[in-house]
Amino acid sequence: xxxxxxxxxxxxxxxxxxxxxxxxxxxxxxxxxxxxxxxxxxxxxxx
Length: 47
Hints:
Distance between the termini: 30 Å
Radius of gyration: 13 Å
Number of strands: 2
Largest sheet: 2 strands, antiparallel
Order of helices and strands: EEH
Structural class: mainly beta
Helix content: under 10%
């Protein structure tokens, strides 16, 4: 089993313009975590 945690940077944060990465991680360590990305922020968000 896994979970999704979304972290939205605060308005004006220095990390706001950095590309996103998505990390998939097991909640019970039954599988290895893996990372996808980086993704540019604007095309990946829906406003």
